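Task: sequence design from structure.
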């Protein structure tokens, strides 16, 4: 499809508009369309809002909001990925480039990974524009090193069931993917005599930085954009 458009996955960083890369802004500027996840129900399209704060002229772009629900049903999720790509594919077939906006870095738990596969299967070109990962920005907010020397870094999906084994790994452990797992995480940390730091809404107006979860009073008000870092900084 030599005359078709290119699908770009653009990482917009974790929340602070000043963390969007120059390359991301140039890519968005060069695309006719911007696509992003629309959570619906009056909630903010966070990736789009971050990009708009960095470049107000994004308002002039044609928008492709897509719906990707939070679900453990793989068949349902796959169907939504297909529907989202089919919507975006119409613009690509017309020869226009599309920038799909994603929080953090485009390679870390991003919906774009699924859309990229579908695009390539359909014969389109898809490219990735990296952004600042949330756990790197969180380390900066905590004023701490993630890893030094030969220390290992492990990134873990906290919805997984192998939490105890993960915490046994040597090095710095980052636990991502939402507050619904936080009660189990905190309980396991306590049982193992471990402490951790927590950052919620990193870089956003309502950012919360907790340097020790031992003093955390409840988890009910924490947003989906929360992560836990434990075992860091030793040289």
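Answer:
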């Amino acid at each position: 499809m030599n005359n078709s458009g290119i699908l770009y996955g653009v990482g917009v960083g974790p929340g602070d508009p000043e963390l969007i890369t120059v390359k991301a802004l140039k890519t968005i500027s060069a695309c006719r369309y911007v696509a992003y996840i629309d959570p619906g129900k009056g909630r903010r399209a966070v990736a789009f809002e971050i990009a708009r704060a960095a470049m107000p002229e994004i308002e002039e772009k044609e928008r492709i909001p897509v719906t990707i629900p939070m679900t453990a049903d793989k068949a349902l999720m796959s169907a939504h990925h297909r529907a989202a790509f089919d919507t975006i594919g119409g613009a690509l077939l017309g020869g226009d480039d599309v920038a799909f906006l994603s929080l953090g870095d485009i390679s870390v738990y991003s919906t774009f990974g699924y859309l990229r596969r579908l695009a390539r299967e359909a014969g389109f070109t898809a490219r990735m524009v990296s952004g600042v990962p949330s756990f790197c920005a969180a380390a900066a907010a905590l004023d701490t090193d993630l890893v030094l020397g030969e220390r290992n870094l492990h990134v873990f999906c906290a919805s997984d069931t192998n939490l105890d084994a993960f915490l046994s790994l040597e090095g710095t452990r980052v636990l991502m993917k939402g507050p619904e797992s936080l009660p189990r995480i905190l309980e396991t940390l306590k049982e193992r005599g471990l402490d951790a730091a927590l950052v919620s809404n990193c870089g956003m107006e309502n950012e919360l930085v907790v340097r020790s979860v031992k003093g955390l009073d409840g988890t009910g008000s924490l947003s989906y954009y929360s992560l836990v870092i434990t075992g860091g900084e030793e040289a």
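The mean pLDDT is 90.
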